[in-house]
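Subject: design request, 203 residues
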């Protein structure tokens, strides 16, 4: 199996499209054995978040995943379009993705010694309609990290831009004393649900 990247010639009609620019989601879908194309979603996430207001974060993650998939499905109606979104939550509030080293440090400093959640919503659209949806939460308790340990970790994995400012698939998994949930949920992609559905429809 292979992966087709980004811009598609008009003559190509892919069966599966990943509506995401996430490298880890690309890798997870590829590892699951699927051939697919990648197209970035065409939706304003910040505006959608404001419109949703104070709905539960798990539902918000799913609705954002749906918006991503639906935006791509509108242009590729016959394809199975996969959307996914992840929201890191600490004490009931959203922890935004870091944009630089300092923000990543501040995030890990906040989560150090505490428990937080990763909310994931994943869906599949076809012909502009949602045909599969899945949502799940993982709960993680981080070790008490001192400043030097946080700096060392950021230099090791460069987790800037990641939910929670860690890369669980790399060395981030070693930051925790307790994990309740699936690795795929922490990584922000319900790949098992996607694989079950696409296998059932014999893609």
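Subject: RE: design request

Done. Sequence follows.
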């Amino acid at each position: 199996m292979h992966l087709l990247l980004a811009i598609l010639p008009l003559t190509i009609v892919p069966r599966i499209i990943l509506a995401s620019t996430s490298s880890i989601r690309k890798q997870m879908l590829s590892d699951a054995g699927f051939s697919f194309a990648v197209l970035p979603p065409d939706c304003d996430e910040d505006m959608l978040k404001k419109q949703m207001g104070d709905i539960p974060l798990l539902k918000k993650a799913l609705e954002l995943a749906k918006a991503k998939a639906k935006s791509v499905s509108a242009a590729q109606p016959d394809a199975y379009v996969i959307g996914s979104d992840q929201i890191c939550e600490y004490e009931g509030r959203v922890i935004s993705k870091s944009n630089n080293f300092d923000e990543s440090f501040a995030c890990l400093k906040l989560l150090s010694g505490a428990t937080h959640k990763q909310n994931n919503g994943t869906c599949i659209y076809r012909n502009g309609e949602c045909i599969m949806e899945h949502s799940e939460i993982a709960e993680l308790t981080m070790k008490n990290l001192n400043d030097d340990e946080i700096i060392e970790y950021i230099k090791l994995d460069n987790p800037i831009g990641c939910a929670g400012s860690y890369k669980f698939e790399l060395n981030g998994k070693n930051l925790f004393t307790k994990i309740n949930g699936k690795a795929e949920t922490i990584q922000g992609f319900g790949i098992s649900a996607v694989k079950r559905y696409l296998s059932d429809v014999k893609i």
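The chain has one domain: 3-200.
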